[in-house]
Amino acid sequence: MTDPANKPQNPARRRLLQAAAAAPALAFVTPCRAEADAAMSKAEVGYQDVPKNGQVCAACVYFMFAPATSAGPASHCAMVAGLISPAGWCEVWAPKQ
Ligand code: SF4
Fold first, then answer.
1. What spacing in Å lies between the alpha carbon of 39 and ligand 1's midpoint?
2. What is the pLDDT of residues 50-72, one digit of tens each?
3. In whole angstroms, what is the distance from residue 3 CA to residue 43 CA?
4. DSSP state of 45
5. Measuring CA to CA, how many Å separate 82 from each of 4, 25, 26, 73, 75?
6. Best CA proximity match to 18, nearest among 45, 42, 37
7. Is pTM, for the whole model, over 0.70?
8. CA of 60 to the centre of ligand 1 (A)
9. Count of other CB atoms within 10 angstroms of residue 43
10. Which of 41, 57, 58, 66 is the most buried (most CB within 10 A)?
11. Atom of ligand 1 nearest to the CA of 42
């Protein structure tokens, strides 16, 4: 029988949990700095430019809208580094309340 405490964690989930644990300390840092510290790479969270099972970045609590430019998507995410598409998705997706 496998002990759940010894189960390997998804690296993205581990970093998300670490960021959540550090949240009280980050409250004393500027918001931009806190976002930079918590940001994960697209690869870590399995980001893709298309929705998954009806879940889409534009409906995610971490989504920060900015109009797209001729160069492509301009929106950001509070959890993922770099530009993202409103039509994208990743493993950290959480619905807006
Ligand atoms: S689905 Fe992922 S990339 Fe998209 S806004 Fe949410 S956390 Fe960011």
1. 11
2. 999 999 999 999 999 998 888 88
3. 28
4. T
5. 33, 24, 20, 10, 9
6. 37
7. no
8. 6
9. 9
10. 57
11. 3
